[in-house]
Design brief:
Elements lengths: L18 H5 L15 E7 L5 E7 L1 H5 L3 E6 L27 E2 L5 E7 L2 H8 L3 E6 L6 H5 L14 E7 L11 E13 L7 E5 L5 E5 L4 H12 L6 E4 L15 H13 L3 E4 L2 H7 L1 E13 L5 E11 L14 H4 L10 E8 L14 H19 L3 H6 L10 E2 L5 E2 L4 H12 L1 H14 L3 E11 L6 E9 L5 E5 L8 H13 L6 E4 L17 H28 L6 E4 L2 E4 L6 E2 L1 H10 L5 E8 L6 E11 L5 E11 L6 H20 L31 E5 L16 H18 L13 H13 L18 E2 L12
Parallel strand pairs: 1-12, 7-29, 10-11, 14-15, 20-21, 27-28
Antiparallel strand pairs: 1-5, 2-4, 2-6, 3-5, 7-15, 8-13, 9-10, 9-12, 13-14, 16-17, 18-26, 19-20, 19-25, 22-23, 23-24, 26-27
């Protein structure tokens, strides 16, 4: 394999090649497409969180101008909605509900008309009779005695659950135990572009344009709905305006449009409105009952977690986030010798919950980092000191945690030391104390979080490199960018391997007719899997070209090198053969310089980092203002620092926003109270600050690039750092915890409670339902940090 050439682009900040067309408005999104005869679809959605559907009258809608089709549940009876994951065969979501609605916004009918305006008008004429049912709109309500059941035949509002078979008390022998019940609140994913799909059933193959993170997976689901082979369906994801996990696979609404287009025999276009989007894509929403035991020196003895994940109606995302990634990362970057983890996924009359940037891993970090701050306060030591005493050492790797996470490598202490130095924590604490002593109303809070997360998850990915007779190259990969910078990163890899200028490399993705297979994008997998596949394809092209060049130059391949003018014999100036000549000869020989392959990688990677947040809290109003945010993140070997910094900034801003502003709220009747941007608080540039982001590199041995993921790290490290900072600002008053988001009313109320001496305990016993779940296989308690 060729090494990094002199003047290589790898490791340098290269501006993204995909941005210019987006900046000047030339990007093409699904809703921009128009085909002859395109019709427009609009959904009729339930205004009730839980109700029986006792009648649907579509006669007036069918007679409305321009209407060509109306579909209801009875028209698609027996067809299950496409879902990314399934929790239980008994909890199947129908394509359109026919008998019972289970959340506000659930689709009940689809109207298709010649124009969008006609479809909107006709949708108002669909007359639906509902018989309202009792509602369970929260975890507590769904678990209460006599709670209304979403699926009476299932017999419970617990979609899935697991408990530890080992009944050993993980806190036995602890000198100190801190306990906390904490809610990691529901948030809306809010991509700038909502769901959108255009289906052309008249094309051969049937062609679908879709905003998705997983083109090949979505194609396969669509083919199943159409009763076709995957080869009979072409799926194209053009520019996609953000996903953050909310565009995994094929959404249920997409499935309805696919079936409608097939039956109508004409193209059908549907684009989600902003009002629909905020109702349909949510993440987080876990309640943790957490207990951490420590010895007298502040070293962790054991951890006990009861985790309830609100998966919404129909067990969104298979109900698996609390039972899967949150469990996997439960012990974080620390030595935890004993763990008990019981978890349930709870059905509620709310929108199906799913992945949002981090998908279960931020929730694990959030509770663990709050527990450590509580423990530091209990022991009277600094937050960084309790982390130092418990962080895994570099010599411990590779390291298998009690949950089975197989950490590749890391230097957690280095990340902690660097973030403390960059933030100058000692100076910050001196200023904090000065303000307290002076009785100022603007208090300073300093919050710290250290984390490790899991990315990539191993598996297979497709990569392709074709060199053309004009000396240019085309690169393809099975991942699917929606803002991550794949075109730049993967082209950089090929430019490095082959010496072809970046401007002569074209990147193609997200079209199943051009890219034979692919796992799409999610879990920060793209560079480590897709990039490794592209690198392997480029290396094979290089080896074939080297052999051909040696033949042309009549030299031993060992004596041939790749230079600025092409391949040449080392030490023999003047004689060379370039890519155009080699590619032309290869085509003439019937063996084009084209390599398509799949790369299999074993094991996930585990990036890590440390964040420090500095906030200012106004004790008179409860308003919290971010002052500084410092992040030191590891993502293995860095290919393009500019793209890494962009991911750090984007993720960190979303994490800060969860800590301070965002939260999707339902009332007791399941009515959304934050369904517009008037009520759901998203920050603007005026609310935010310049971020201080830095990186360290610990190249992983688990892929040839040494790369780990970075796309979700910011949301994992920033949220608990900001959360801890707000509590720290008020800690001298006796405040030990606040629920997120740390809004002015919550902060002000906590200050008033502290002044009156009526602080809450922030703990109650977890529900008995945890003990009723199926047991997980017992694990051996870990008494030290033995490496694997």
């Amino acid at each position: 394999m060729p090494g990094v050439r002199p003047g290589s682009l790898l490791g340098t900040a290269v501006r993204r090649v995909e941005d210019p067309e987006l900046v000047v408005g030339h990007g093409t999104f699904v809703a921009n497409h128009r085909l002859p005869g395109t019709t427009h679809a609009v959904f009729v959605r339930s205004p009730f969180a839980h109700a029986l559907v006792t009648g649907i009258d579509v006669a007036a809608a069918l007679e409305a101008p321009g209407v060509v089709m109306v579909l209801t549940g009875s028209d698609v009876d027996g067809i299950a909605a496409p879902v990314f994951a399934s929790a239980n065969p008994a909890l199947v979501r129908p394509l359109l509900t026919a008998d019972r609605v289970r959340f506000v916004g659930e689709p009940v009918a689809l109207v298709v008309a010649e124009t969008l305006a006609q479809a909107v008008d006709a949708a108002e004429l669909v007359d639906i009779d509902y018989d309202p049912l009792p509602v369970a709109s929260s975890i507590e309500a769904a678990l209460a005695d006599g709670a209304p059941l979403q699926f009476p035949d299932h017999g419970s509002n617990v979609a899935r659950g697991v408990r530890d078979a080992d009944e050993t008390d993980p806190l036995a022998g602890a000198a100190h135990v801190v306990r906390l019940r904490m809610h990691n609140q529901r948030i809306a994913t809010n991509p700038i572009e909502g769901h959108a799909i255009l289906v052309d059933p008249t094309a051969d193959p049937v062609t679908i344009w879709l905003g998705t993170q997983h083109p090949h997976g979505a194609r396969d689901l669509a083919a199943r709905l159409l009763d076709l082979e995957p080869s009979q369906v072409r799926l194209v994801a053009p520019h996609v305006g953000g996903g953050f996990g909310g565009k995994a696979g094929l959404a249920p609404e997409h499935g309805v449009v696919v079936v409608a287009a097939q039956r109508l025999g004409r193209p059908v276009l549907w684009g989600e409105t902003r009002s629909e989007a905020i109702l349909s894509m949510h993440g987080r929403d876990q309640v943790h009952w957490a207990e951490l035991g420590l010895d007298r020196d502040g070293q962790i003895v054991g951890l006990r977690l009861h985790v309830a994940g609100d998966c919404g109606a129909y067990a969104g995302f298979g109900g698996g986030l609390a039972l899967g990634p949150t469990y996997l990362m439960a012990t974080g970057p620390y030595r935890v010798p004993r763990l008990r983890y019981d978890a349930i996924a709870v059905l509620t009359n709310t929108a199906p919950n799913g992945a949002f940037r981090g998908a279960g891993r931020p929730e694990a970090a959030a509770i663990l980092e709050r527990l450590l701050d509580l423990a530091a306060d209990e022991l009277g030591i600094a937050p960084e000191e309790i982390r130092r005493r418990n962080l895994l050492d570099p010599e411990a790797f590779p390291y298998r945690t009690l949950t089975g996470a197989d950490y590749d490598n890391g230097d957690y202490q280095r990340a902690l030391d660097e973030v403390l130095q960059r933030a100058d924590v000692e100076a910050l604490r001196a200023e904090q104390q000065r303000r307290r002593d002076a009785g100022e109303t603007l208090l300073l809070g300093i919050g710290l979080a250290t984390y490790v997360e899991v990315t990539g998850f191993g598996g297979s990915e497709f990569g392709s490199v074709h060199v053309h007779p004009d000396g240019s190259a085309t690169v393809r990969a099975g991942t699917s960018a929606h803002g991550q910078g794949h075109a730049t990163s993967f082209s950089m890899i090929v430019a490095d391997r082959l010496g072809i200028p970046l401007e002569r490399i074209t990147y193609e993705q997200s079209d199943t007719a051009a890219v034979r297979s692919g796992g799409g994008t999610g879990g920060s997998r793209s560079l480590q899997l897709g990039g490794s596949a592209v690198a392997a394809a480029a290396d094979e092209v290089y080896e074939r070209a080297l052999a051909a060049a040696a033949d042309v130059l009549e030299a031993d391949p060992a004596d041939v090198v790749l230079g600025a003018e092409g391949f040449q014999v080392a030490g023999v100036p003047g004689a060379s053969v370039g890519w155009a000549d080699l590619a032309t000869r290869a085509v003439g020989d019937g063996t084009p310089l084209e390599v398509d392959l799949d790369v299999d990688l074993e094991g996930a990677t585990f990036p890590f980092g440390a964040h420090i947040s500095v906030v200012e809290v106004d004790v008179e109003t409860g308003h919290v203002r971010p002052l500084r945010h410092v992040a030191v993140d590891d993502c293995g070997r860095i290919l393009n620092p500019l793209i890494v910094a962009g991911q750090q900034h984007g993720g960190t801003v979303q994490g800060i926003s969860q800590a301070l502003w965002e939260g999707f709220v339902y009332d007791a009747q399941g009515t959304p109270l934050t369904s517009t941007f008037v009520d759901y608080t998203l920050p603007t540039a005026a609310d935010l600050i310049q971020l201080d982001v830095a990186t360290i590199e610990t190249p992983t041995p688990r892929n040839p690039l040494g790369a780990k993921g970075i796309g979700e790290s910011g949301t994992i490290g920033s949220t608990p750092a900001v959360h801890n900072a707000v509590v720290d600002a008020l800690s001298h008053l006796g405040v030990r915890h606040l629920e997120m988001p740390c809004t002015p009313d919550r902060v002000w109320a906590a200050i008033q409670q502290a002044r009156s001496g009526e602080l809450p305990t922030w703990w109650d016993e977890p529900p008995a339902v945890f003990a009723e779940q199926r047991p997980r296989a017992a694990r051996t308690p870990r008494e030290d940090s033995t490496a694997i």
